[in-house]
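Sample pair:
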Amino acid sequence: MKQQLMDRFEIQDLLVRYCHALDRRDWPVFEQLFSEDANLDYTAFGGPRADAKAMAAYLAAATAGLRGTQHTVSTTLIEFDGDDQARARSAAQVMMISGPEAGPDQVLFVGLWYQDRLRRTAQGWRLCERVQERSWMHNLPAVSA
C-alpha cells in the first residue's frame, strides 16, 4: 500500500511536469517524460501520431506563434496493472493567448482528456502512450474548430 501511494505521487508529479514543460517550451524535459518507445496520438486536435521527439518538434512549431499558454491537469484517475504498469485518465484545460504582438489578446480555451499508459523504468515512471480525447473548445478560430 505504501509503495502504491508513492507511485501515485510520482505519476501525478510526472503529469504536472508535462504541463510545465509545455508552458516553458522546454522540449528536452518534455522528451524525458516519455519512455523511449512512447507513442503519442494528438490527432483529436489535428496533430500527429508520433514519438516524443517528433511530437516535441511539432509542438515547438505549433506554439511558436502563441504569446503564452497555460496547461492544467486535474481529476486524474490512476489504475495499476501490476507493480510496473498503470493507466491514467486526466482532465486537462489549455488556455492560449494568440494575436498580433501589438494587437489585442485572443484567449483560446480547450478542454480535453488524456488517456495514458505508464510504465516504471530505471528513471522512474514514464508515459509510454498518450492519447488526446477532445472534450470542448471555446473561442477558437473556425479553421481550428
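Residues 2-138 form a domain with the Nuclear Transport Factor 2; Chain: A, fold (CATH 3.10.450.50).
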